[in-house]
Automatic annotation (TrEMBL):
InterPro entries xrefs: RVT-Znf
Protein name according to UniProt: Reverse transcriptase zinc-binding domain-containing protein
Lineage: Eukaryota, Viridiplantae, Streptophyta, Embryophyta, Tracheophyta
Domain Reverse transcriptase zinc-binding: start-end pairs: 14-83
Pfam families membership: zf-RVT (PF13966)
Amino acid sequence: MYQGLCREKFPGVANFPFKSVWRLKAPSKVNGFAWLLFHNRTLTHDNLKRRGWNIVSRCVLCEANTETASHLFRSCEYSTRIWDRYMTVLSVGGPFPIDLQQLFGCWCREDPDDWLDWFRYLFLHGFVWEVWKERNERSFKDTSKAWQVIFHKIGRTLLHWIAAAGQINDQNAKDWRRLLALACPPTRNNSI
């Protein structure tokens, strides 16, 4: 019933994996954040302005554009560098989705049936969570990290979540070796 009401009010949510967002083996606050992000309810500058806040809107990651959720996670130069590196390391093809609803819709299934589907979904959560945390660090603590640091932080976060969920097995060992490339900082011989 809830899905039907949402689809009437928000036509773009037809492909959102309603059930699996809460079953994903990520912390509840991350799943909740993904839910808010999909519904454009995160406290980005554009949403704060709609609530009556008088602020100058600028993306703290690239310092070039107005801060919106779509910009932060899809078109910001900082975020797209992380995304492009992920696509290269894990040999994932395809263009970056046009908007966040398309990203969630095409990457997240209601019932992920194989390890790669499950991992894509988990990566998406890790990606938006770590980029959001970096945005907040820059906004509230006036500190910043290079995109490469966040890229590796995403990998470490995913390893932590996956190990906690007991998802490591012999069938996906090759994929784990590629995932380790996300989590391990580059050496002189293996730079980004």
